[in-house]
Amino acid sequence: MASTEQLGQRVRALRRQRGLSQEQLAAPGLSASYISLIESGRRQPAEAALSALAAALGTSVQHLQHGHSATTAGQAELDLRLAEVALASGSYDEAERRFRSQLGAADAVLRPRAQQGLAQALEAQGHLEQAIAVYESLRDSSAGGADGWVSATVALIRCYREAGDLGRSADLGERALEHLTSLGLTATDLHVQLGASVAFTAYERGDLVRARYLIDRVMRQADELGSARAQGSALWNAAIITAERGEVATALELSEQALLLFHEEGRSRQAARLRNSFAELLLRTDPPRPEQALELLRSAHADLAEVGTVTDLAYCETEIARAHLLLGDAPAAVAAARDALHHLPAAEERLERSRALVVLADAWLAAGDVDAAEAAYREAGETLVAAGAGRQAARVWRQLSDHLERRGDVVGALAALKAATDAIGVPGAAQPLQVER
């Protein structure tokens, strides 16, 4: 529904186009003074009055309400659906173009859908700063009510995290959780998704206690809802956090449960992403299972090439590189890691880019190119520090320190070790760090 002021402006414009005064337009039940109030935006006409006005002015109720005819409205809806189809099919550049063309033409009802689609298309292409701006606008407008606000918030938490601004991601998520708690709203799938997103940001920051607490709460909510999607999302995040705690066998069990819940979705982005995560866990088991992981990753990659984002593809290619490395094929590992980096702009996607750089460094070492390996390690460490991911940065700097020590570069090794301790907030300390191998 248009605003009262906009509707009044259209009534006045049409009346003047037809050369009518307010008195001439008046009719039984539609006095001149009532028309004056409508035109000034001080009165919203009742349904009967709106129909009478439309008839007297030779237009439609649809035009008075929205500024276009039913035919135009139908075309706008069709154009928007075509944009949504392009988005769902993975044609993100086409989807972006179509959604942008709709922003100026769409009315108050369709515009939020166009904005949501545009943000998703931008995010899928790795244009995180642009996507954040659109999501922030959607969140500020509270389009779609409480669910629309939660949906935009979840997207922002994810985008800020992937862009490397973990502080903003965490702050936004924690405040959103407090806000929902204060409102006393009944938990929905979106609420579960919000909790899982905040938990994952806590995990990325190295706050495993907070992450575990949040994911336990999310899993209880998902069980109460009885929603397969909510339960799958909770199990997925629980598996990642459990693996980080060193409980890889338990993480594998959780991932398998999540895979079963997502299995009925068939060839979906979520199912493919979950296969990525499951494959990553297979690479971290003792002993690792690279052949099984590579089979899963190739299957996921085929689906993500159709329905995934550039971040999804980069994550998959990074794990493919890791699998090749474990299989002793250093050249294939280098190629896959470079493919992953090709998808990730240097100024954005900091966390994902850092993961790919670390694997590339390991692959260069295995291939015998120590200079390229050291450069990749340094870039990864610096990128993680900029993202606020101190725990992960410390791990990379320690890897570089160990490598330099083996090469006999004691000064370089000490400098890398200092960078590791600085990254976790212990400037100048020189205590050994426990590093996953």
What does this entry look like structurally?
There is one protein chain. The C terminus is likely disordered. The protein is elongated, with a radius of gyration of 27 Å. The longest helix is centred in the N-terminal third of the chain and has 19 residues. With 437 residues, the chain is mostly helical. The chain folds into four domains: 64 residues, 434 Repressor (Amino-terminal Domain); 126 residues, Serine Threonine Protein Phosphatase 5, Tetratricopeptide repeat (Alpha Horseshoe), CATH 1.25.40; 85 residues, Serine Threonine Protein Phosphatase 5, Tetratricopeptide repeat, CATH 1.25.40; 69 residues, no CATH class. It has 23 helices and no strands. Helices cover 78% and strands 0% of the residues. The protein starts with a helix and ends in a 14-residue tail after the last helix.
Q: Which spans of ≥5 residues are poorly predicted at pLDDT below 50?
A: 426-437
Care to count the β-strands? 0
Secondary-structure class: mainly alpha
CATH superfamily of the largest domain, by name, is Tetratricopeptide repeat domain
Question: From N to C, what is the helix and strand string?
Answer: HHHHHHHHHHHHHHHHHHHHHHH
How much β-strand is present in the residues?
A: under 5%
Distance linking N and C termini: 60 Å
CATH fold assignment of the largest domain: Serine Threonine Protein Phosphatase 5, Tetratricopeptide repeat
Number of structurally distinct domains? 4
Cα-based radius of gyration, to the nearest Å: 27 Å
Summarize the biggest pleated sheet. Answer: none
SS field, number of helical segments: 23
Shape: elongated
What is the CATH level 1 assignment of the largest domain?
Mainly Alpha
Helix percentage: over 70%
